[in-house]
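Reviewers of the previous submission asked for a worked example of the structure-prediction workflow described in the proposal, so we include one complete record here. The input consisted solely of the amino acid sequence. No template or homolog information was supplied to the procedure at any stage.
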Amino acid sequence: MTVTAIESVTRHKMRVSLDGEPAFVFTDREIREWNLTEEMEFDRAEEEALVQYVCREAARTAMNLLVKRDYAQAELYRKLRERGYSEYFARQGIAYVSSYHYLDDERYARQMIGGYKGTASRKMMMNKMKQKGLSDDVIREVMEASEWTDEMGITRELHRRFSSAEQIEEMADKERQKLIQSLMRKGYGYGDITHVMRHFGEIDQERV
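From that input alone, the workflow returned the following structure tokens.
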């Protein structure tokens, strides 16, 4: 293994490339401690020691990120890559926190649902989870288990705007269309919206 480049990232941080590929970011203190220089070649013992050290640092970085908030696995992987870790070291960091169950995509998805349930459409919620890097299988499983319905979100939206079914019935056509369009922009389907509007007075608000 050879150090092929040491490039400045910030005033006190340097990106180190190994065998032609960016591998990790070290502080200038760490550069000195490891005596790293460009074109430096490692013997097997030195290589193993450096790799173990960087793996521990990647794991520590992952832990520090998780202390602040939960992450989906793909989201945490992107964060580690942004911190300068190569694919290998980023995956080692992920493997470490996963082995202690600090990282759990299903738990993270359930927490997301707990925060949004009844305030967004299924379509919007699923898009949010996909943006976090959650897999289709995880999304499908947690959505089914949550018994999330768009009726809940639409009803909550209407209760926020109206105090009675009569207010909805008395709306002018133009205002009714504006209301429907605003709800459709949130991901709700036209059929679900009109159904809830027609039966607004019959829906038990306590369920939402």
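The first helix runs from residue 28 to 33. We consider this example representative of the routine output the project will generate in years two and three.
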